[in-house]
């Protein structure tokens, strides 16, 4: 350790903290911690070595500091973010880039030199009078080649507490790896707090990602998506690192589908927010490995994946006893859970939009004291909870945790799934012809319709390739090329699917029940294991009626009629052609580095659709395509 680093650390950390940090033989780490503690100037510093006492200290500090309050159920606490700080702040989140580097118009960037001066100004003395926490985590399972060590400095006990639930401990990995650790670094300060312990200066929010130093800065915000460094902030660093090393960081769930004879087929799934990602990962009868972020590596000709996290920062809106039995059970049982931006009632119970039972008439929520019908200063009704209210919970609290969730080797990926909110184009489930076709026509063409809950106007299609657009730290064209190249050298490519849980009929009614998705995944398992044929369509391969009829009976004990099948799986030519045009235009006009193959694959799909339209008309029932064995793959 350099002399002045030792001096600063001794002064800032006290004996116990200094000892914990000195055990790690990594001068870069020491210099980083010293630099930001000196600059942010907290009154005290707590260094966690992941011992049960240290974790307990962090948890209790959150209550003592008033960032969390205890709820009626043992182990449950509530946290509030200031009004208007309940979501990812896209505008003030930026990748820092040196002059001359371009990321393209979909990626928010800031000039690196200017932003670093700015952030250092905002961070100066930002922790004054407060305690800072220095915590170590691993992004990925212990002892795994996939895993990346990470250090977080924060003055928020809520952030530190959340991370102990969501991420695996990392202190031992730092000790073991010493100088060799290639770690990510996070500095967060909530800045000044009001008397509700929420951020006072939201106008000074900054979330800056410095790819050059692998550091993310976050200030004047508390919402988890902006502050929990290891979540979406680390994702940007990891996408960038993976792009140089030949592996992928994806916004994907990982789940085990349980097929015949105790077989388990692992699939990953990418869905934009509020499109059924967590409910898919939590399908009953299947097992969960992760619900949000996956690292994918190639190993011995196979694709393997791990969950970067060990917990869930789940959306609580809509969780009810019928549709989400496992989450419902956890939310009603003792155990460690942080609920954020929900309604707290007088008896310290909680309520949220879509919970079973009557909405209480009053309580306390993200807007302060709340009564039914309360309006904000824009005359907008404030619901009992925020639509993006969350709960933070360790996956081990669920009965459906997959036994391989912590396997350092990861799990073998049988299929990748892409899904968005799409009322009129994609059929409920469809297989791509091959890897490149899947990456381009599913992943790179992913769109999702906005919901009333999240944005002003409902039903507007947003382009969101791989559901990763908000987290990219490399230009989109390059990202797509890396996805395409990923299949090189594989012995067996995972299959690629699209799913659509939101298809509607002409009257605007959903064509599927929420639970139907169980069947789509069982069919995917059968396909990956080559146990059923599928019908070739111009856009991919769809299930045969007889196979689905059997699965609906087996899985849901439901009689699935031919009429339902035909309505759901009709190929919609005008809508499919319109989608190709929309996607092509975006890549042609807005993305400078689009790989040429994207246009070739879309053009071929267009030609197949036009040919089919000529032959069969605008709407093609599956039966027309499946008249003999020739239509099968
Ligand atoms: C999340 C998100 O919080 O994608 O996972 O917004
Ligand atoms: Mn997410």
TrEMBL record:
Enzyme Commission designation: 4.1.1.32
Binding site for Mn(2+): 232, 251, 292
Catalytic residues (positions): 275
InterPro entries (alphabetical): PEP_carboxykinase_C (IPR013035), PEP_carboxykinase_GTP (IPR008209), PEP_carboxykinase_GTP_C (IPR035077), PEP_carboxykinase_GTP_N (IPR035078), PEP_carboxykinase_N (IPR008210)
Entry annotated with the keyword GTP-binding: yes
Sequence positions that bind substrate: 88, 223-225, 273, 388-390
Domain of life the protein comes from: Bacteria
Gene Ontology cellular component list: cytosol
Keyword Cytoplasm recorded: yes
Domain Phosphoenolpyruvate carboxykinase C-terminal P-loop: residue ranges: 247-608
Catalytic activity, reaction form: oxaloacetate + GTP = phosphoenolpyruvate + GDP + CO2
Cofactor binding comment, as recorded: Binds 1 Mn(2+) ion per subunit.
One of the protein's GO biological processes: gluconeogenesis
NCBIfam families, A to Z: PRK04210.1
HAMAP family: PEPCK_GTP
Protein name (record): Phosphoenolpyruvate carboxykinase [GTP]
């Amino acid at each position: 350790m350099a002399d002045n680093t030792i001096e600063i650390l001794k002064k800032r950390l006290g004996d116990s903290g200094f000892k914990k940090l000195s055990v790690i033989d990594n001068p870069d780490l020491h210099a980083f911690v010293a630099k930001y503690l000196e600059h942010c100037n907290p009154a005290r510093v707590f260094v966690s070595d992941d011992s049960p006492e240290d974790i307990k200290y962090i948890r209790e500090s959150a209550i003592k500091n008033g960032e969390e309050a205890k709820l009626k159920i043992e182990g449950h606490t509530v946290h509030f973010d200031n009004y208007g700080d309940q979501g990812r702040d896209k505008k003030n989140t930026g990748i820092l880039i040196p002059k001359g580097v371009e990321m393209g118009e979909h990626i928010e960037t800031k000039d690196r030199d200017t932003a670093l001066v700015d952030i250092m100004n905002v961070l100066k003395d930002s922790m004054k009078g407060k305690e800072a926490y220095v915590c170590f985590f691993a992004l990925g399972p212990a002892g795994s080649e996939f895993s990346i060590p990470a250090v977080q400095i924060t003055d928020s006990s809520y952030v530190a507490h959340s991370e102990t639930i969501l991420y695996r401990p990392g202190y031992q990995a730092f000790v073991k790896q010493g100088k060799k650790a290639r770690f990510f670094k996070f500095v967060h300060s909530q800045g000044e707090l009001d008397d509700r312990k929420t951020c006072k200066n939201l106008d000074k929010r900054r979330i800056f990602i410095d790819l050059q130093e692998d550091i993310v800065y976050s200030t004047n915000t508390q919402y988890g998506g902006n502050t929990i460094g290891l979540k979406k902030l680390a994702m940007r660093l990891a996408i960038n690192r993976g792009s140089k090393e030949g592996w992928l960081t994806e916004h994907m769930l990982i789940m085990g589908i349980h097929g015949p004879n105790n077989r388990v087929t692992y699939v990953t799934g990418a869905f934009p927010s509020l499109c059924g990602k967590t409910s898919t990962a939590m399908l009953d009868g299947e097992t969960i490995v992760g619900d949000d972020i996956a690292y994918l590596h190639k190993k011995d000709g196979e694709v393997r994946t791990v969950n970067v996290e060990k917990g869930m920062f789940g959306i609580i809106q809509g969780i009810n006893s019928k549709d989400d039995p496992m989450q419902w059970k956890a939310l009603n049982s003792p155990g460690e859970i942080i609920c954020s931006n929900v309604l707290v009632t007088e008896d310290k119970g909680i309520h949220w939009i879509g919970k079973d039972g009557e909405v209480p008439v009053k309580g306390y929520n993200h807007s302060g004291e709340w009564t039914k019908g309360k309006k904000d200063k824009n005359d907008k009704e404030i619901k009992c909870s925020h639509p993006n209210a969350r709960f933070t919970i360790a996956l081990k609290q669920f009965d459906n945790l997959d036994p391989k969730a912590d396997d350092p080797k990861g799990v073998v990926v049988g299929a990748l799934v892409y899904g968005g909110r799409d009322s009129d184009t994609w059929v409920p489930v469809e297989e791509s012809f091959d890897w490149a076709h899947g990456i381009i026509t599913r992943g790179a063409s992913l769109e999702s319709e906005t919901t009333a809950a999240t944005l002003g106007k409902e039903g507007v299609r947003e382009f969101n390739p791989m559901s990763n657009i908000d987290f990219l730290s490399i230009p989109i064209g390059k990202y797509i090329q890396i996805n395409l190249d990923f299949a090189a050298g594989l012995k067996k490519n995972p299959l690629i699917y699209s799913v659509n849980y939101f298809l509607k009929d002409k009257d605007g009614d959903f064509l599927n029940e929420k639970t139907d998705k169980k069947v789509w995944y069982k069919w995917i398992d059968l396909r990956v294991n080559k146990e059923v044929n599928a019908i070739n369509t111009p856009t991919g391969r769809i299930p045969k009626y007889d196979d689905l009829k059997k699965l609906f009976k087996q899985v849901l004990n439901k009689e699935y009629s031919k009429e339902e099948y035909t309505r759901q799986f009709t190929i919609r030519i005008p809508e499919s052609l319109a989608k190709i045009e929309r996607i092509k235009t975006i890549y042609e006009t807005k993305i400078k580095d689009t790989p040429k193959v994207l246009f070739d694959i879309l053009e071929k799909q267009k030609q197949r659709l036009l040919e089919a339209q000529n032959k069969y008309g605008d709407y093609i029932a599956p039966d027309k395509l499946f008249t003999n064995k020739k239509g099968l793959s």
